[in-house]
Every structure is written in C-alpha cells, then in structure tokens.
Write a structure and sequence with these properties.
It contains 8 helices and 9 strands. The chain is of the alpha+beta class. Helix 1 runs antiparallel to helix 2 and helix 5 packs antiparallel against helix 7. The relative contact order is 0.09.
Length: about 260
C-alpha cells in the first residue's frame, strides 16, 4: 500500500512538473523572450509520469478480511482470486473487485436493530407461513454466513454485490417456508424445534455452497403467532391454570373432610 501511494504521488509530481514547464515556456514567450519547448525535457517528464502512473496502477494490496477478483478486459474474470497481500496486475487492462470474507449476518425479524438493518435486514422481515394444519406462524431467524474466498470469482460473475437480495434472502425464506408447511404449530414451537432448525440449516448450507458461500449457522430466534391465535393460547393457559387451581381446591376440601372424619 505504501509503495503504491509513493508511486502515485511521484506520478502526480511528474504531471505537475510537465504542466509547470509548459506554463513557464508560455510565460517566457509572452515576455517576448526566445524560449522554445524542448522535446527532450517533455519526453523525460512525460516518460516519468507515464511510468509512475503505470506502476502505481499495477500494484494492488488486498487487506485482511477481503478477497480480490480480477477482471481482464480481454479474457474476462480470472478464475484465481487475490488473497490478502500485495499483487501485480496489468495496468489499465485489469480491474480488481473486492469482496468481504468476514462473517455476515442476515436477520429476519419484526423489529430489527440499526446494526441488523446495516447488514441487510428489512424493517419487518418476519417470515409468515401456514403450518401443516393451515395456521399462520411468523419465524424470526438469524443466518451467519461468509463468502468462500476460493469461490469469489463465481460470486462476482453470478451476483456481484446483489447476493443478499438475489440469493441469501430468497433461499432462506424458501427453505424455512417449506419446513414450516410440513410441520404443525406444536412441532415448530415445541420439542421438534431443534430438529426442524437443523434440517433447515443443512438445506441452506447445501444451497449456499453451490453458489460460493459458507453457512456458519442458522438459528430460529422466535416463533410469532397471529393476534387471534396468541389470544386463544393465552385463554387456554388461563383455563388450564383455573383447572389446576380448582383441582387444588378440591384436594384441600377432600383432605379437610378426611381430617374431620378421622377426628370424629
């Protein structure tokens, strides 16, 4: 990075020197002094400027946490990515596109945080889908993934910077909706939740790997219900509590009656 900066600065200096020399000659001529533009001076300065510019453009430094994809104007995208470090490319013919290899998180939730929105989450992106018995449930989830550095050229050719909208979000929603529709509300909210989550994670991983992405984890964060169903669950819980309370009262009365019978 330092070498490229120095060369870029040197090229700028040469170009400024060329402009300054031409201006100086013109000023001298305006004063009616015989001053000619020397081709040799122009050639030296111009050669230095072009050489410095070319060298500066040929040096590319890939930072840690990213990978470079080289696009050649004549042969297209090169199959070998550029890993962190300094690399040489053909100036003015090749262009380097950078992609992050660090962990990224895509979150589907009703109320995402500002950080989650920055990572691509929408304002209200809960996945609502019917279960096997036809009831609507909303799934909040978080998916941790990363670009596979070895597959960066494929990602570039297929998606460029649209992979969240074109691949990540549609894949997650499609697979989650499939498994929700194959299970009941009790399965999703109850003991089979972990099993369903693992099945979803395996399918997402297979799809991601086909397109050059690594799935790090998939987590079901929350299961949401429609207001009517949530109210029915609450009423059921209240009824269950009342039944348990009534059973407790009856047991106490039976115990009290038994005690009085023994005392008599």
């Amino acid at each position: 990075m330092v070498i490229a900066t120095i060369l870029s600065g040197l090229a700028t200096l040469f170009w400024l020197s060329l402009v300054a020399y031409v201006v100086w000659v013109l000023v001298e001529r305006s004063r009616r002094r015989e001053q000619k533009i020397r081709i040799s001076v122009i050639a030296v300065i111009l050669s230095g400027a072009l050489l410095s510019s070319a060298l500066a453009s040929s040096i590319v430094v890939i930072d840690a946490g990213e990978v470079g994809v080289v696009f050649n104007a004549f042969i297209g995208t090169k199959s070998t990515p550029l890993y962190p470090g300094m690399h040489l490319i053909i100036p003015y013919v090749e262009t380097v596109y950078r992609y992050p290899t660090q962990e990224q998180v895509y979150t589907m939730t009703q109320t995402p945080s500002a950080e989650q929105i920055a990572y691509g989450a929408m304002q209200d992106d809960t996945l609502w889908s019917p279960t096997r018995e036809g009831l609507q449930v909303g799934i909040d989830s978080s998916t941790r993934y990363a670009i596979d550095p070895r597959q960066a050229p494929h990602v570039h050719n297929s998606f460029r910077n649209t992979y969240v909208e074109v691949l990540i979000r549609p894949t997650i929603r499609s697979i989650v909706r499939h498994y929700v529709s194959q299970n009941t509300v009790t399965d999703i909210y109850g003991p089979k939740r972990r099993e369903i989550q693992i099945a979803i994670e395996n399918d997402i991983r297979e799809r991601f790997e086909q397109e050059g992405f690594l799935l790090l984890s998939f987590d079901i964060r929350n299961v949401n219900f429609t207001p009517d169903y949530a109210q029915s669950i609450e009423q059921k819980q209240i009824a269950q509590q009342q039944a348990e309370q009534m059973q407790y009262v009856l047991q106490r009365e039976q115990q009290e009656a038994e005690r009085k019978r023994v005392e008599a």
